[in-house]
Amino acid sequence: MTLGPVPGPSDPAPAGAPPSAPAISVQGLVKRYRKATRNAVDGISFEVGTGAFFVLLGPNGAGKTTTISILTTTLSPTGGRALIGGRDIVAEASAVRREVGIIFQKPSLDQNLTGEENVRFHAVLYGLYPWAPSWRLMPAAYRTQVEELAGLLGVGEEIFAPVRTYSGGMRRKLEIVRSLLHRPRVLFLDEPTAGLDAPTRRTLWDYLARVRRESGTTVFLTTHYLEEAEGADHVCVIDHGRVVAAGSPAQLKAELTHETLIVDAAAADRAALRAELAGLGLAADGDGPFTLPVGGDRTHAVLRSISTPLTLVRTSAPTLEDAYLQIVGRSAADGEEEGAGGEASEGAAGHSDGASSTPEDSVRA
Asked: Is 194 left (phi over 0), alpha (psi -120 to 50) or beta?
């Protein structure tokens, strides 16, 4: 079943917002929890274009979930500004909620209801349709929309079964159906595939790609599965609440990693191979195989220069995970240096950062 054209939210764009305004605009966002000694989110800024696939990466405790909580208006920022579809998340929180859908780390479904009943309550709470006690009594427009989304996500007749009978993957699909019902401009996915097996993760991403393609929804993802971010339009890496790297996956890989050439020879020929590589200016440590930091055209030049018979020739292209590990490793080293320097000045600084502390952490219903 093909999902028909999906219109935007019923509310018009905010007055004064340019027609090409980004789906998400974050400017100097700060969050400090009460009694905390540092900011959980520390002045981050980024933009996400309409219809883009954006990924926020970082180690545990980096500030990813706090950032999503702020952008979806469930947590108040301490400072900075953020706009969703041109709407301010603080001044226009109610309107922002109608612009976004969210899938949390842990499923938020009522296990005792059917899938359709979970979706129906969501529709009523959002004011999309009037309440009716059964599927057949709900408006025809609601039933058509649910059938289209269920078909798109591959839920089908299972939507009328109790949620407690669903597999983990099926529950995630139902949450996507529910989160898309009000046609959000932005879909926030906070580690949506955590705990799912590899085939289920792949199937779920196939469905999400189709949703994006057919609805034009902007997708904002946090994940610890780095392969899920390989197809992103833009990746932002945060650590200790700060942006430490940003760009497309290809840009991050090109800037921080290099292709490698892996070669080896028979045991009797390894000394000759090592000598040849040294003559080419390539360090060949260990007993083999030898990993050489070369790539592209130089790979062919190196192979043509080697006369020793080779038993192994393999190239290894960098992955986003390789780049990510370099980024967070570098960030950790920089943090240790800052900490060492900060200890000497902390006594003089006293509590100068107290002005940044939030007086109250408010959670909006």
From this structure: beta
Q: How far apart are the first and last CA of the chain?
A: 35
Q: Is residue 253 within 8 Å of residue 319, measured between CB atoms?
A: yes
Highest mean predicted confidence (pLDDT) among 42-51, 260-269, 298-307: 42-51
List the beta bridge partners of residue 263: 290, 313
Closest CA to 186 of 351, 23, 356: 23
What tens digit of pLDDT does each residue of 203-218 get?
878 888 887 888 889 9
Contact, 185 vs 23, CB < 8 A?
yes
Reported as a pLDDT band with limits 50, 70 and 90, residue 300 is confident
Beta strands in 85-148 (DSSP E): 87-88, 100-103
Query: Going by C-beta distance under 8 Å and a sequence separation of 6 or more, which residues neighbour residue 112?
Result: 162, 163, 164
**Distance of alpha carbon 155 from alpha carbon 258, whole angstroms:** 42
Residue that is written with structure tokens 């269920």 in the block: 150
Which stretches of the chain are assigned E, i.e. beta strand?
24-31, 41-48, 53-57, 79-84, 87-88, 100-103, 186-190, 218-222, 234-239, 242-247, 260-264, 290-292, 312-316
Confidence of residue 296 (pLDDT cuts 50, 70, 90): low
CB 167 within 8 A of CB 158: no
Provide the 8-state DSSP code for 13: P
pTM as predicted: 0.74
The two three-digit tokens of residue 4, written as one number? 């028909």
Give the model's pLDDT for residue 10.
Answer: 35
Q: Kindly report, residue by residue over 252-280, the tens digit of the pLDDT.
A: 988 776 778 889 999 999 989 988 888 88
Interacting residues of 135 by C-beta distance below 8 A, sequence separation 6+: 116, 120, 143, 160
